[in-house]
């Protein structure tokens, strides 16, 4: 991200009264303002289908900042931010009403609305004459399956060029995810062993301890496979496994990611385990099962946990299994990549205890611990040669004093700058759907797991003879 103010432009949030706007977008814009990274001139216009005065919208924004912003507004900071805010009720005024509230010839429009409303909204924005000078951010999920994603791409491309479209995947805005490229391509030692010759298998876990919270209706239509695995997990995986781009130019990076998606082997039903959390007691408190949550059907077969075994059919990765999993109501929040290397060809040493003779493991902890650690064997002190696994660790917190920006701040700033390196391109999204399409058509029933446990038993069988690193 360049540390400059983007060119003058208005910022429009469609869906401004929703949850995403309050939790993420308004706080991100406020923090960009504090860092002097909002355009010099330009409004922030909230659009929604609720009738609301500008004053009411400002009050909503103020509460959002007080509750969710990483820095709370002082009175002066708030009034500078509030001055930019305006509101358009699109139910009564349509997007023509929005046009009259804009002050600049360029704008960033953020569609923070349900996917079912994308196509008609894009069309309405086009009919209101707001195509030239617009960049548009679309929130995931980009479609529900391959056919609907293609349909969505067609409707978007009927109005906007691909260069105007920014498909956001907020995992790509995380500092530790961007560091994957630096780790791989800034350090020659890792790149030499980053292939099938040295790597036995790779695990990637996105674990959340929370349940579905108040998002029952959304989750019933989505499930873990579509909510996290097909987008966040695949996107991060592409950075972990793609070839080195010729430059950091956005299309050079996106071309390499697309080639990687092309090489992903479509999943078969045996490659997928689906689970759903069941009622349990965690820390002495009873926690509802998914099917008892508000907005969820009592006989719901939607997965809150998904684990897959995936192969990448190219020269670098042929034959290496990638085990990917995500779940809600797991024992703790942790997003981690574990690269397990091949064992030494001959065992010269004896290990002590069950931990002895473990393979080398590289662990990239993306959140909440932001660390990278390499596990290798060392001689335990004593007269005998006995080996034990030990850790070498890099920690963001210990090495750097600066704290990372929120992913949304970085990504919104990039979009205002017209830099789409960290946004998904249509062809990559299409391919990511093609990889999961065969299992979406042939879903096996979910297996229940107790809330607070590491998912269903079938996921252990999927990864056998290996074990999940987090367990
Ligand atoms: C969102 C999903 O995209 O990512 C949520 O819809 C999930 O279900 C969230 O909780 C996780 O994001 P983060 O940044 O909190 O790990």
Task: Note the main attributes of this structure.
471 residues, alpha/beta, Rossmann fold, Dihydrodipicolinate Reductase, domain 2, ten-stranded mixed β-sheet, 18 strands, globular, binds 6-O-phosphono-beta-D-glucopyranose
Can you characterise this structure?
About 35% of the residues lie in helices and about 20% in strands. The protein has two domains: about 10-140, 3-Layer(aba) Sandwich (Rossmann fold); about 170-405 and about 430-465, Dihydrodipicolinate Reductase, domain 2. Strands 14-17-16-15-13-7-12-11-8-18 form a ten-stranded mixed β-sheet. The protein has a six-stranded parallel β-sheet with strand order 3-2-1-4-5-6, sandwiched between helices. It has a two-stranded antiparallel sheet with strand order 9-10. The mean pLDDT is about 95. It has 14 helices and 18 strands. The protein has about 475 residues and is of the alpha/beta class. Helix 1 crosses helix 2, helix 1 crosses helix 12 and helix 9 (about 215-240) packs across helix 10 (about 250-265). The structure holds 6-O-phosphono-beta-D-glucopyranose.
């Amino acid at each position: 991200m360049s540390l400059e103010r983007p060119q003058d432009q208005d910022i429009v949030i469609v869906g401004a009264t929703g949850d995403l706007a309050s939790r993420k977008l308004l706080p991100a814009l406020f923090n960009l303002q504090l860092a002097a990274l909002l355009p010099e001139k330009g409004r922030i216009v909230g659009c929604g289908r609720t009738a609301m005065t500008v004053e009411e919208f400002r009050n909503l924004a103020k509460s959002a900042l007080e509750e969710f912003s990483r820095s709370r507004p002082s009175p002066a900071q708030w009034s500078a931010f509030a001055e930019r805010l305006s509101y358009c009720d699109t139910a009564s005024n349509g997007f023509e009403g929005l046009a009259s509230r804009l002050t600049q010839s360029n704008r960033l429009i953020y569609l923070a609305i349900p996917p079912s409303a994308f196509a008609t909204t894009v069309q309405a924005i086009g009919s209101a004459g707001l195509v030239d000078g617009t960049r548009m951010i679309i929130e995931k999920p980009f479609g529900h399956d391959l056919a609907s994603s293609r349909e969505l791409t067609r409707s978007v491309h009927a109005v906007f060029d691909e260069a105007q479209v920014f498909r956001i995947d907020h995992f790509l805005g995380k500092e530790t995810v961007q560091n994957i490229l630096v780790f791989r391509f800034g350090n020659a030692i890792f790149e030499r062993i980053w292939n099938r010759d040295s790597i036995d298998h790779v695990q990637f876990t996105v674990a959340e301890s929370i349940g579905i919270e108040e998002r029952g209706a959304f989750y019933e239509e989505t499930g873990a496979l579509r909510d996290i695995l097909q987008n966040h997990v695949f996107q991060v995986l592409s950075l972990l496994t793609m070839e080195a781009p010729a430059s950091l130019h956005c299309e050079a990076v996106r071309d390499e990611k697309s080639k990687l998606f092309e090489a992903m082997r479509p999943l078969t039903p045996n490659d997928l385990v689906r689970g759903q959390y069941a009622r349990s007691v965690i820390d002495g408190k009873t926690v509802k099962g998914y099917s008892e949550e508000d907005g969820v059907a009592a006989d719901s077969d939607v997965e809150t946990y998904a684990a897959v075994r995936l192969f990448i059919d190219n020269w670098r990765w042929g034959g290496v299994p990638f085990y990917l999993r995500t779940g809600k109501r797991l024992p703790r929040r942790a997003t981690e990549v574990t690269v397990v290397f091949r064992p030494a060809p001959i065992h010269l040493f004896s290990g002590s205890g069950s931990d002895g003779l473990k393979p080398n493991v590289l662990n990239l902890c993306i959140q909440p611990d932001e660390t990278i650690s390499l596990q290798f064997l060392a001689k335990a002190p004593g007269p005998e040669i006995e080996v034990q696994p030990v850790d070498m660790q890099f920690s963001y917190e210990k090495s750097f004093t600066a704290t990372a920006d929120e992913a949304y701040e970085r990504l919104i700033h990039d979009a205002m700058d017209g830099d789409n390196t960290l946004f998904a391109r249509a062809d990559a999204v299409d391919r990511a759907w093609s990889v999961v399409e065969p299992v979406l058509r042939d879903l096996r029933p979910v297996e229940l797991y107790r809330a607070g446990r590491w998912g269903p038993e079938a996921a252990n069988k999927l990864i056998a003879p290996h074990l999940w690193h987090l367990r």
